Amino acid sequence: MGFDHYALMHHVDLTHYDPSLGHMDRGEMVALSNYPQAWVEEYIRRGIVSDDPILLASQRTNVGFTWDEVPSLIDFTAAHRALTDDTRRAGLWSGYTVPAHVPGEATGSCTFAMRVGRPLPMHNLAMAQLVGAFAFQAARTMVANARPQPAPRARKLTDRQLQCTILVGRGLNERQIAARLGISDETVKRHLKEARQAFQVAKSVQLVTRSLHYGQISLSDLVRD
């Protein structure tokens, strides 16, 4: 999708986060990311989760928002401004966050972020909204040690179908995918058509979200190379 980083998390105390598990060592709480490790450690050490403006904004809306929109969603204080500056110094310059509200659970979110000097891929925010929602649900399932049921009559995608699906998820069109893989446009169209048929969906964005939900691709596959 053109993003550099991602983070999926329940908005809870992260002091019990176990990197080897990818979630809390107490309870079935999600905390997965490829953020810079130094920032993850500082974030946990400082207990930032309790006053993170991004997470506070997630409680005020059900739809995705860019980080630039946060001051319009919450009472944006000087402390929040300072934290935003710290985040940028850590290498996370801008982002898009998709809130996740599951009844009976702490609020969660899926965030896609950009490193310093790279703009948000605004043309892919609609896809990020869909992928983010599915990614959080898939992470909850993984943490609970449950496997999602396969899509009706779905089969495992071939390696080439997976490659095409991943590149669609990164925002490439069919011609760009063909150039990247060294195959013809028609071959790309055929692979994507057969992949959509495998999941019984009509659109490429549905193919990406289904592939993600059923574990055939991961969120890491969709961020920038």
Automatic annotation (TrEMBL):
SMART domains: HTH_LUXR. Keywords: DNA-binding, Transcription, Transcription regulation. GO terms for molecular function: DNA binding. It comes from the Bacteria. GO terms for biological process: regulation of DNA-templated transcription. Residues 150-215 form the HTH luxR-type domain. This is LuxR family transcriptional regulator. It comes from Allosphingosinicella deserti.
